[in-house]
Give the backbone structure.
Amino acid sequence: MVQDLGYLKESPSQTAGPYVHIGCTPNFAGITGVYETDLGATMVNDKTLGERITVRGRVIDGAGTPLKDALVEIWQADAAGLYNSPSELRGAADPNFTGWGRCPTSADEGVFGFETIKPGRVPYKDGRKMAPHITVWVVARGINIGLHTRMYFADEAEANAEDPLLARIEHRHRVATLVAPREGSIYTFDIHLQGEKETVFLDI
Amino acid sequence: MSDRSNKKPETGAFFQRDRAWHAPALTPGYKTSVLRSPQRALLSLDGTISEITGPVFGHSILGALDNDLIHNFAKPGESAIGERTIVHGRVLDERGKPVPGALLEFWQANAGGRYRHKKETYLAPLDPNFGGCGRTITDEDGGYRFRTIKPGPYPWPNGVNDWRPAHIHFSVFGHGFAQRLITQMYFEGDPMIWKCPIVTTIPDRRAIEQLIAPLDWANTIPMDARAYKFDIVLRGRRSTLFENRLEGN
């Protein structure tokens, strides 16, 4: 016998189900008067520093159909590369930027969208700078455990080329699944759950 | 947050997730997973600052009735119909440490098993005094509580005759985005738990049992409401004792 490590097991995940909007975006679901606003609907205000961008996309299943009942959350650094979190010890993040957003995919076309700013670069564990990126988390009916991935920016080719995470992707043609093309101020990030274009998801 | 400001900041990466404890992505018994499950291996990466950090929510976002589903959608002077129930417990991490300041959001069907949602088609009636959503933030001991009515079981289109056991959905934020979790709570003694194709996506019986809240007789309020106790465990954080620290830390 040895001593017991005494660790607990993480509560197992269960699907968010078809009614995740009741709990996470009730106003979107038509349940009004309980919360003033849906959390995560606004990330920026008039004073937020940085380049204003829109991130939009779809979550697409193995039959090529966009999910109309998914919920997407994003988490990102501010324009200076600082996170608005107590675990951020490198400095104070922009108080006018939450860094966190939440958006349901629309009931008609299955599109999500965030009005945000382009994040600055943050360090990898060894001090190298990672390319600017947005952490993305997807839940929906039929997804048993939330899917983590990252969105990178197509107009940051030089930074992307030296990014430690992108460098870890063995099949190089799959790097493109994490890089959102830009048109004006809009970046489009389609997330493919399956198939030839399956997004690289992370165990992180 | 004030209740964390005097403590050492948490900067360690999280314990790796035990993927065998969770449901796999592809679980054909739960049909919707078939076309929504990634088929390639996940890319494993030790946590970086992008996942070690996460948003925090202050108590200022909470309204007075946010943790009272019996009243937060009801007309003045009225209340939701159903078995009056208190759900309480603690949010801990895998090291057994309380997680204070954790935002919990919960949602559920009404006492008849009907959700207030435009895609809901079950013939059971809506309760005009029940919305079905609530939220709270854990205290400095990781504790939380809310009042609701016990949700009903309901049939759903999967197999011809599949039913969900009574359950409450939980969305949980810890202190790092890697801890983000959505799960469901079940009620002790419900024989339908073991017949449910969503519950049984979880391969290990002990893991399923971790989601079943026992009746908490000690905390039941006489002549008012029964209590169920539901503890939630989030990923633990590694000690940073011997890890390289980034410049400026």
User: Anything to note?
Assistant: The mean pLDDT of chain A is 97. The domain at 20-192 of chain A is CATH 2.60.130.10 (Protocatechuate 3,4-Dioxygenase, subunit A). The radius of gyration of chain A is 18 Å. Chain A touches chain B through 83 residues (CB under 8 Å).
